[in-house]
Specification:
The structure is a homodimer. Chain A is an alpha/beta fold. Helices cover 33% and strands 27% of the residues of chain A. A 6-stranded mixed β-sheet of chain A has the order 6-7-8-3-9-10, with helices on both faces. Chain A has a 4-stranded antiparallel β-sheet with strand order 2-1-4-5, covered by helices on one side. The complex binds adenosine-5'-triphosphate (2 copies) and magnesium ion (2 copies). One adenosine-5'-triphosphate (ATP) sits at the interface of chains A and B.
Chain lengths: 227, 227
């Protein structure tokens, strides 16, 4: 469902561009649970932004359900993302002026979900990540791990088929983190495709496949022996 | 050097205030290396902001080197913090329009360090956290873990006696994280006082004392048997 062929991503920086991804080939099939690991700066978030059609490659092809994303315009990309992809950003990217509840409702407004349905689904999702008592807090009125959990709830709002989670447990204690990983595992059991960036080998153990990046290259791609 | 007596911190929220800290008593002596742990939302960052005199308690006393911070005005607090405290924020709080180098130089400008000294110290610190090749990147041109490392380098700029690190390794791979923890351990060996918030028991093992919070209470306070 997600395919990369000879993908390069360069960031222009003065004289020497940063080569964040160097000729990456990758295929992720529907229903897989993939963990993406690698050192800080190795290209994981860059790869996630391409997989989520949030960014275009500098070279090479990115195919999303067989459609090449470089052939789609921004409206088509936004429509595809809104319906099919749930993105949990490494830096949360919550809307600072909206409450937790409103942040989770926002993606559903774009999919024309009725107000009553939106509100009840947002509350259910926030309770599922143990934030039932923080519905009316804005991001600045929440702890780091609480903001992260709002970002997780928001990503699940439209029942996406593909969930791209960029380090979703970095700010959570072990118990809260395991609760999120079990939630992702349950969604995968329902057939959702999951790509999880993590630095924590215990989190990666929830996946059935572990891909390792280094300096923009894929240096390892193994099925998880523990599964 | 840092003392709390019956400290409460309430956040006003509609009808029912959030009681983030409830009657906390705590003493941290000069030169200690303390790890602060506890579930997401248990009050760790709130406590760190009080220890760093970035915020005032709702009730109770916070003493910084025997001075009660509620008796100091904002200028005196800023002066105290600028000279004595290095703060690594959970959400980095880098200045988005400045490069990595300029972000690390900024605290030294307030302490009237000469331009040449500022520049060379900032570069030395960024090289020490393996960012020598990213000096001229702005935060939006850096990965999550790279931004975190800029925030760490910045906190050390003025040779602070007290380092308050709120989850400094959350976005780092194991190797980069261990490098930072060893750096903090070295600074502690030089006599610096360190308070490290972490969710990772392996990071907490670097400390000589582990304090656990739950719902705004201190529920455990043990010297680390492994040390
Ligand atoms: N400005 C605020 N207004 C209202 N409530 C707040 C505010 N800041 C924090 N809180 C609440 O106070 C509680 C403690 O927050 P704090 O940031 O200290 O937690 P924490 O232990 O650092 O959590 P984490 O591990 O997730 O970072 C949280 O439940 C949070 O919702
Ligand atoms: N907009 C940009 N402009 C210039 N360089 C960038 C930009 N975004 C990222 N980079 C660089 O590209 C490299 C890859 O960044 P990326 O965010 O993909 O890393 P990462 O693997 O997610 O790291 P982390 O684990 O620290 O989050 C980094 O070295 C970073 O400095
Ligand atoms: Mg990243
Ligand atoms: Mg916190």
């Amino acid at each position: 469902v997600l395919q990369l062929k000879n993908v390069w991503k360069l960031y222009a920086m003065g004289e020497a561009p940063v080569k964040a991804l160097r000729g990456l080939d990758l295929e992720i099939r529907a229903g897989e649970f993939v963990a993406l690991m690698g050192p800080s700066g190795s290209g994981k978030s860059t790869l996630m932004h391409l997989l989520g059609a949030l960014d275009q490659p500098s070279e090479g092809e990115v195919r999303f359900e067989n459609e090449e994303i470089s052939r789609l315009d921004e409206n088509q990309l936004a429509e595809l993302r809104g319906r099919k992809v749930g993105f949990i950003f490494q830096t949360f990217n919550l809307v600072p002026t909206l409450t937790a509840l409103e942040n989770v409702e926002l993606p559903m407004i774009f999919q024309n979900v009725s107000r009553a349905n939106r509100r009840s689904r947002a509350q259910t999702l926030l309770e599922r990540v143990s934030l039932g008592e923080r519905l009316h807090h804005q991001p600045s009125q929440l702890s780091g791990g609480e903001q992260q959990r709002v970002a997780i709830a928001r990503a699940l709002a439209n029942h996406p088929e593909i969930i791209l989670a960029d380090e979703p447990t970095g700010n959570l204690d072990t118990e809260s983190g395991e609760k999120i990983l079990r939630l992702l595992k349950d969604l995968n059991a329902e057939g959702k495709t999951i790509v999880l960036v993590t630095h924590n080998p215990e989190a990666a153990a929830y996946a059935s496949r572990i891909i390792r990046l280094k300096d923009g290259h894929r240096i390892e791609d193994l099925s998880n022996p523990k599964i």
